[in-house]
Structures are given as C-alpha cells and as structure tokens.
Amino acid sequence: MSTSSNIITHTLGFPRIGERRALKWALESHWRGESSAQALQATAKSVRAQTFHAHKESGITHPPVGDFSFYDHMADTALLFGQVPHRFGSTANTLDNLFTLGRGKNVAGQNIAPLAMKKWFNSNYHYLVPELEADQPIALDAARYLDLVREALAANPAAKPVLVGPLTFLYLSRGLDEAGRLAKAEALAAGYQLLLNELKALGVAWVQIDEPILTLDLPADWLQAFEPTYHRLKVPGIKLLLTTYFGDLNGNVALAANLPVDGLHIDATMTRDLIAVADRLPDYKVLSVGILDGRSIWRADLAPMLQRLAPVYARLKERLWLAPSCSLLHLPLDAAFETKLPEFLRNNLSYARQKLTELNLLARGLSEGLDSIALELNQAAAARAELDRQPGRNSSTVRAKTETIAATEPNRRGAFAERAAAQQARFNLPLLPTTTIGSFPQTHEIRAARKAFKNRELSEEQYESSMKDEIRHVIEIQEKIGLDVLVHGEAERNDMVEYFGEQLDGFAFTQEGWVQSYGSRCVKPPIIWGDVQRSRPMTVAWARYAQSLSQRPVKGMLTGPVTILFWSFVRDDLSREAVCYQIAEALRQEINDLAAAGIGMIQVDEPAFREGLPLRRKDWAPYLNWAVRAFKHAVVDAPNDVQIHTHMCYSEFNDIIEAIAALDADVITIETTRSNMKLLDAFSDFHYPNAIGPGIYDIHAPQIPTMEEIEPRVRLALEKIPAERLWINPDCGLKTRGWKEVIPSLEAMVAVARKLRKEHG
C-alpha cells in the first residue's frame, strides 16, 4: 500500500523481536554458545529488513533507524558515548560489551554485576540504567550505530535516525548526583554534535531525538539545561525532531516549542488542546502529532481522530506530521498472525504493522477527505459493533459489584501488630525467615508437558500427574536447602498473568502477541475484552497439594489486581479503575477459598503497582486511591492468622511509600540487589511498619552469588530494618534460571541467614 497524501508520516520506533520472536531465539542461542555472532547479526538484519519493508508497503515517509537494539537502547547510548563504569573494563561499543552491561560476567571467579534495571517511565519495558562516573570522559564510538544508518539509508534514503536525548539520558542515569549528571551535559552535547556531523555526511535529513523527560515534573535546573544543551549540539544542514511521549507537556510547552530544533512531536493521546501547541510553534517548525495510541492493540476509531486533526491541518498544512504516540516497541508485531482468535476479536486488533496502515489511512482521510477512506471507516465501525454485541461484554451483575467496591474502604480485621502476633503463633518462624518469590525453573520437561497437554497429546490426568511430580520435586529441594517458607514452584503456570486470565471470564489469549520486556525476555499479555469474573477456583487444588507435602508453610501464589490489569491489553470502553475492581473481586473469592483450604500464607504479587502511576504528581492521587483500594479489597477477608505477602520489583518507592504502606501487606518483598540495597532507604526513612524482604541476590544475571556477596547486603539491610521484621529472599522469581544456578544460590542465602541468626540471638 502507498499514499498519495502530501502529509508526512513516520514512526518513533518499532518492535525489535521479529516474527515468531526470531531475535529472542537467536540471542539465547548465541549466549549459550550454540551459534556465532555472524548468525546473530544475520537474524537481526533480517528483522530490520522486515521493518523497512512494512514501512515501505504502508507508505510511511520516514521509517526509524537506531531504535533497534540487541538488548536495550539506553545501554546502547551509554556505549555510544563511552559511559561505561570502570568495573566493566572496556568501554568499546561492541555487542559483547552490550551483553555484559545487561547480564554481568564472571572474571577469574569474581562476579561483575550488570547495570540495574528500571521501568521505562510508566511502561512494562525495563531499561538498563547507565552508571555515570565523574572521571569517565565522553568519547563517541559510533561505528556500530552508523552501520545501522547506512543499512537503512540503502533501503530508504528518508530513513530517520533515532537517538535518546542527552538530557533524558543523563536524568535517567545513576552513579552521580543530579549536579554531577548535569555537569556532563556540555561534553555530552559536544558528543552528539560530532555524531550529527557524521550523520550529515551520510546524507541524513532528519534526526529524531527523544526527550520524554519533558513530560515529567522536572526540577528547574534540568529545565534550564535544555536551551544551552540544544544550542551546543545543533548542526547546520541537519534537522532535529524533538520527541516527547507518554504524557502531556503541560507547563513545558513553551520551552519545547522554542528550543533550537526543527520539529516537535507530542503525544496526542495525552494532550487535549492540539491547537494550543501548534500556536506555540514558530512558523518554520513542524508539529508531529502522535494521534494513534502506540500502546493500544485496539483498532483505531479514525473518524474522531480526523475531526481533531482537521483544524491543526488547516493551520499547519505541510508542517503537520502524523505518527503513533510513542514507539511501537510496546506492541506486538502483527495481528495477521492471530489465526486462532475469534473473528469478533481479530477484526478489532491493531498491532504495530496495522498501526502503519492506520497511519496511512489518517493521512489520506485528512488530505483527501473522509470519502477516500469510507470503506475502511465502515469496516471498523461494523467490527466494533460486533464486539459490543458479544455475550460477556457487559454484565449488569459485575457492574453493580464494581460500583459497590468503588464506594468502600476495605480494611483487614486487625492491625498489623495484632496480625503479626497471630501469625507468629501459627507458624513459629525463626528470626530472618528465608523464602523465595514464587517460581522455580521452567525446565524443558515442564514446557514439553504443557505443550503436549495443550496439543491434546497428554490427558488431563497425565498432565496433572506430571505437574504434581514437579511440585513434589520442588518441595523436596526447598526442604533440603532449608528454606523456612516454601512455594510450589508454579510449574503449571505459563505466565503470571496469562495463567489467571485463562481461568477468568472476559479474557482472550493470543498466539503471537509478544512484547519485549527486557533483553531477550518477552511477555504475551492477555486481552481483556469483556467483564471479568471468576467461575471456579484457580489455584486452590495446587496449593492444597503442595501444602500436604510439607510441615513448613507453603505460600499460595496469586498475581495482584493492579498487575493483572497493567500487564494485560485492556479494553478501551471502560475505565481501568472499574476493570481493576472486577479483577480484585475475583481474587477476593480466590483468597477466601485458599484460606478455607488451610493455606496460611498467600502472596499477592504487584510488580506493576508503580507502573500505573501517572507521570505528573498532580495526577497521582486518583490512581493511587483506586489501586490501593483494589488490592485491599482482594485481601480484606483474610483472617488475622493468614499472612498476606506482596512483591514489587524494579521500581522507585520513595515517592509512593505512603501508598505502599496503605496496602497493609504483612510482608513485602522488593528487588534491591542492583541498587545495592539503596531502594530500602525509602522504607527505612518512612519507618515502614510491616515486614520487608529485600532481595539479596539478582536472579536476572546468570552468575551464582556466594556467601561473601550476600552477607554484606543482608548486614546493610539490618542497618535499615529491625531483624524481627526482616525476611531473606532473592530479588524475583526463579523461572528463568536453571537448577544448577538456583540450588547453590539458595544454599548460600540460607547459610547467611543462619549465620546472622546466631549473631542476633
């Protein structure tokens, strides 16, 4: 498909993983030593070629280049400008060094820790956090990046290189305080200028520079740094498109509009008044309107979008560009692969490749009139009407219950001190109790049994027997290691969200709806299309069986309502608050059944709790109110002697610590290793009243931690949290690791806990 429109269209980025997750399999094969670097590069080149082809077929004017990464774009930027901590040795911009930043390495028996990971703004993508050092000079090493640009220009001379903006890079980094990071801005701008000159020499016309921090509540000194930084990096003869996304510019519109750049991209899904932004722009600048939601899988309703765009187009004419709101990295690749979904759903999906088609249609409709795309508009309207007619789309019973939850303030029966006493009387746990976050290795045998059952090659009885054998194995290993609180290992679960969605009404499941989470890790969010309700117990039988195998407590494992919500593709016709309450009610019923079955500890994981937080502080309170209410509704009926755990990872907790305390979980476990326990400061400074389990080793790196590595972390935790409220556990679940890594790691963890128990009596 192509367009005769004179409106420029472009995308900010595209999925990197390729068809059937080709890049994932190539990366993991290479890391295992089973394939060469050349084979990996060939797969990557094929993925990029498919991206260029999709943009060309859809008539997109400026396809992106430089958004592709073998691991993470922030780590790529750190290597591009030589910002690699000294502990890694070489700063060379090579693939091996990129993988070391993400995975760490072992040199002469010494583990070198990888970079920390954090959520990319309010998405479920995890970026590697660059570590800046004052004595590490800015040194451009652009060969790998420029090779990608040459490849793209050969496919399309209008390809648009993409760069993380210098101030976003510095602001999201760590290692130096704010003043120290800002002190690097001048030298970094000079590095960008050198790179822009290289791009100019290759014939590049436009360069996209991402500065999404402009949608945050930035300190004044960071805002003041934009103008001098962009004056320093400006190169005559090459045009810059400054891009922002995930939020409204709000008070930063004037700043962004008047920077020495040639265009501004805004997220129109978050910006109400497009004309107000257009009016701020000088006459020579373009306005890129991110009109399509780059994180929504739903087919767009193009007619109202065209209504919004019409006055902007009348004002700007050829200075109006159209784009998705953000990089399409956050979407699956192609809905055409979803051959097994019911037709009423399949006809309403729009993945990354479909967004390109919709972008083309918007450009045609705007320049040539609605009649030029009347057929497509009618098809979309008919598809949505068919979806809305489906049974289960709207349940009066579920809606009534949702309204009741919204009007309540659920609280457990006793205060924490009262509950803690009842729980200790029931479980008689030692000081510094040890546990894990929930999952154990998903071995080849487990995956093969699940696949065989799905393909009806195993009967339900055979599959259940296989999973019970695995649970028994996991319980025996944990008892042998000496863990105090056990888990059943989650062998029967394909994914911590999809597993529950498969057993709840209102969910659907894709074949190829994969989205990158970090590195080679991909997730396949379910689709919430109807009202959510529970028709039967989901985990009770497995939990009861696991508990029957041990005298030690075995935690029941659930994914929390907020995480199920945000790690799903959510319907777009109902508020997220209402959907979250529906999920919370289903979980309340499950928790009640678990408690009735004798399960005394229940973990309700909420790793996405902070992910849902709006970017601007003024918008936080409504979200935090309903997110906390949903969690508390799920656990409200638990008796005092039932211990409620929750888990959160890769989040900043300082600014939402009051909301976390309001959850009132008996035990919270958090990821703290990559921050060297710094994330505990929020809990310590706040005097968090309940029990805490800071992760004391990083499960995302393949290295095996020793007692000598673990003990200092626990001692540091003991300086911040009283021993009687401190738990010992890994950072996260262990499903991605192998048993050869897991067993010695947990043995070292338990040995440290026992050693320190003796010291603390």
From TrEMBL:
Binding note for cofactor: Binds 1 zinc ion per subunit. Binds 2 Zn(2+) ions per subunit.
Active site, renumbered: 700 (proton donor)
EC number: 2.1.1.14
An annotated Gene Ontology molecular function: zinc ion binding
Residues holding L-homocysteine: 437-439, 490, 605
Cofactor(s) named in the record: Zn(2+)
Gene3D superfamilies on file: 3.20.20.210
Leading EC class: transferase
Chain sites annotated for binding Zn(2+) 1: 647, 649, 671, 732
Pathway the protein contributes to: Amino-acid biosynthesis; L-methionine biosynthesis via de novo pathway; L-methionine from L-homocysteine (MetE route): step 1/1
Keywords: Amino-acid biosynthesis, Metal-binding, Methionine biosynthesis, Methyltransferase, Repeat, Transferase, Zinc
Positions bound to 5-methyltetrahydropteroyltri-L-glutamate: 24, 119, 124, 521-522, 567, 611
Annotated positions binding Zn(2+): 647, 649, 671, 732
Cobalamin-independent methionine synthase MetE N-terminal domain mapped to chain residues: 9-314
Catalytic activity: 5-methyltetrahydropteroyltri-L-glutamate + L-homocysteine = tetrahydropteroyltri-L-glutamate + L-methionine
Domain Cobalamin-independent methionine synthase MetE C-terminal/archaeal: 432-754
Database matches in PANTHER family: 5-METHYLTETRAHYDROPTEROYLTRIGLUTAMATE--HOMOCYSTEINE METHYLTRANSFERASE
Function: Catalyzes the transfer of a methyl group from 5-methyltetrahydrofolate to homocysteine resulting in methionine formation.
UniProt family annotation: Belongs to the vitamin-B12 independent methionine synthase family.
Protein name: 5-methyltetrahydropteroyltriglutamate--homocysteine methyltransferase
Gene: metE
